[in-house]
Amino acid sequence: MLDKQNKLNYIIIMIILDTPEQIDMARFFILRSALKAECLGIGRRGQSVYSIIKQEYGFKGTKKSVLQQMEQIIKEFKQG
Question: Measured on CA atoms in the order 40, 46, 51, 55, is the torsion positive or negative?
Fold first, then answer.
């Protein structure tokens, strides 16, 4: 955001994740975001996020179907 003097103002938000479940879910969210970028063609060096997700969580299908499966899990997590 820019103020009246055209200076950039930053807002810093800190979140404390102190249980293994919170840390795992945060990593799941990060992997989901990285997979979204990968679906758009933004790559990275080394192993693809898609292959990491399939290996760790056992999902099957294309990048888009794996992304949909992840979003369904997140939706269910937020509801309950």
Answer: negative
